[in-house]
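Quick one, probably user error.
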């Protein structure tokens, strides 16, 4: 109804309103906008944003995001241990070759760089492929859902249960960068110990046992 008719109906003065709803184009900016509104209006106004109205749902999503980040971190750690074990076996297998390189004048720094680059290339390739596939999956998740529904003949994430007409997906560049940096950091760190062992290998002992 018109504002004047609403004031008359609720018996309010002509220059007041009892409730004012503010719609944002960027919902994630609600905290900053709420603080600015509170600063401009003073202490007499009570603010209630959409996060407070859906606090239980919002908290559940935050917990889920934290748990998923922890699970992904553990997966990357397992992959890092695979890199460590693979490089250690490579050092064992290439002991004679390392010894020959050392006798030909290769320094420990050179040997360390060789095995570091070998392990780092595995981490870099895996991270690149993982980011590419992840972004491809996230940007086409609704199409993938429709394909699975047509393939299985069942409805995935029914709208009357999950209140979703389509599968939403939002790629946060900051989170993508943080995951990439963590994956690269762990994979590069995993190569240090095997590379150090290769650099510390005594060529005399390696050739003697060969």
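Nope, works fine. Designed sequence:
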């Amino acid at each position: 109804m018109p504002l004047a008719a609403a004031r008359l109906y609720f018996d309010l003065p002509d220059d007041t309103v009892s409730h004012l709803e503010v719609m944002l184009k960027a919902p994630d900016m609600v905290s900053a906008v709420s603080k600015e509104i509170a600063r401009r209006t003073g202490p007499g106004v009570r603010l209630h944003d959409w996060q407070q109205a859906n606090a239980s749902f919002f908290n559940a999503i935050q917990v889920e995001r934290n748990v998923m980040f922890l699970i992904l971190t553990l997966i990357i750690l397992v992959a890092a241990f695979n890199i460590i074990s693979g490089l250690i076996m490579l050092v064992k297998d290439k002991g004679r070759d390392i010894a020959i390189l050392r006798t030909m004048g290769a320094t420990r720094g050179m040997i360390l760089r060789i095995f570091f680059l070998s392990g780092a290339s595995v981490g870099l390739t895996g991270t690149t492929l993982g980011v590419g596939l992840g972004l491809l999956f996230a940007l086409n998740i609704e199409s993938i859902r429709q394909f699975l529904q047509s393939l299985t003949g069942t409805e995935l994430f029914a709208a009357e249960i999950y209140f979703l007409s389509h599968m939403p997906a939002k790629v946060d560049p900051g989170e993508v960068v943080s995951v990439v940096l963590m994956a690269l950091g762990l994979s590069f760190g995993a190569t240090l110990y095997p590379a150090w062992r290769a650099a510390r290998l005594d060529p005399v002992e390696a050739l003697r046992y060969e």
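The radius of gyration is 29 Å.
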